[in-house]
Amino acid sequence: MKIRNTLSAAVIGLASIGSQAMAADSAEPIVIPTHNWSSQVVMAYVIGGIFESLGDTVEYVPADSQAVYEAIRIGDVTISHEVWQSTFGASFYNAMAKGGIIDAGTHSAATLEEMGVPQYVIDDNLCPGLPNWEALKNCPEVFATADSEGKGRWLEGPQSWHGDLMPTRLAALGLSDQYVVKFAGGADAIWAELASAKKEGRGIITFNWTPNFTDAEGFAFIEFPPYTDGCRVADGGDGACGSPKGWLKKAANYKFPKTHPAAYSAFSKIDFSSTDIGQMAALVDIDGMSHQDAATKWLADHEDVWKPFVE
Ligand code: TMO
């Protein structure tokens, strides 16, 4: 009968509209980058585990922490879950201006990526006047090392994090005659240097950041002239400024909401606090766990934090 055929066609039509509205995530893997500091790698596996709980497939790729924004923009990588303002804000926004990468929200954790000293350097008054940066002028010898050419050493992170920012800042502040920047080969080299300096009770200035596992023990960031938009040499300024009290964002390829709607919905809700991120780093850098094991443990111990992201 004609009516029946029309009706069943209408029913089929409705069913397919319904299934489109509730389209399942693509079986294509969600590509998550891993970089070279602990919280980021643990969080990669934490977020991968959250996606897997939704039935998604994930793939992890080691990636350069600056070039990754272009990789996301062109679709080789799906997300970035720790976009730190000071180090990566410019690369993120440059990629966004070209099109293909979207802002997927901001974590609650406020960030700072800055030079600083362990708390005992302040408490033992090894360089009176710290953490005000001007105190550095009077005690380069406190921070001298065998390789620092008779100057104080600024132990910077790997150059891949933010290029020549610190050498440029040293010069802009008029400290180049007294201090020299040395780049660490990796984050572990910074933690090893902090541990040996503490053991010997000597002064040390290193790049560090918060949230990190070092928050628990106490780390004093140097107070430089305040950051303002455009103060950096790369942004047209004179470079005589500290790092921003910054944000921590998430980014995604613009197709991710369409290819993986359930995973994208969870990703957009994911919001980690300073405590969460400090815990993820500490499981590796204090407790000595592998990144994968740390993520498995963190997910098991903190369902109250992440389950709401998938509801
Ligand atoms: C990007 N980092 C947290 C190492 O400064």
What does this structure look like?
With 311 residues, this protein is of the alpha/beta class. It folds into two domains: 9-110 and 246-310, D-Maltodextrin-Binding Protein, domain 2 (3-Layer(aba) Sandwich), CATH 3.40.190; 112-235, D-Maltodextrin-Binding Protein, domain 2. The chain has helices spanning 2-21, 38-53, 68-73, 85-98, 119-123, 159-162, 165-172, 187-200, 256-259, 261-269, 274-285, 291-301, 303-306; strands at 30-34, 58-62, 79-84, 101-106, 112-118, 152-156, 179-183, 205-210, 219-221, 248-253. Strands 7-6-8-5-9 form a five-stranded mixed sheet. α2 packs across α11, α2 packs across α12 (291-301) and α11 crosses α12 (291-301). The longest helix has 20 residues, at 2-21. The radius of gyration is 23 Å and the shape is globular. It starts with a helix and ends in a 5-residue tail after the last helix. Mean pLDDT is 94; it is low at 1-21. Trimethylamine oxide binds at residues 37, 84, 87, 113, 157, 161, 209. The site of trimethylamine oxide (TMO) has 7 residues, from loops.
Defining traits:
alpha/beta, D-Maltodextrin-Binding Protein, domain 2, 5-stranded mixed β-sheet, disordered N terminus, 41% helix, globular, 2 domains, binds trimethylamine oxide, 311 residues, 3-stranded antiparallel β-sheet, 13 helices
Number of helices: 13
Content-based structural category? alpha/beta
Number of strands: 10
As a whole number of angstroms, the C-alpha radius of gyration is: 23 Å
Order of helices and strands: HEHEHEHEEHEHHEHEEEHHHHH
Q: What is the CA-CA span between the terminal residues?
A: 45 Å
CATH second-level architecture of the largest domain: 3-Layer(aba) Sandwich
Summed over residues and divided by their number, the pLDDT gives a mean of 94
The total number of structural domains is: 2
Strand order of the largest sheet: 7-6-8-5-9
Strand content: 15-25%
Bound compounds, each kind once, are:
trimethylamine oxide
CATH class of the largest domain: Alpha Beta
The description of the largest β-sheet is: 5 strands, mixed
Q: Could you state the CATH homologous superfamily of the largest domain?
A: Periplasmic binding protein-like II
Helix content: 40-55%
Shape: globular
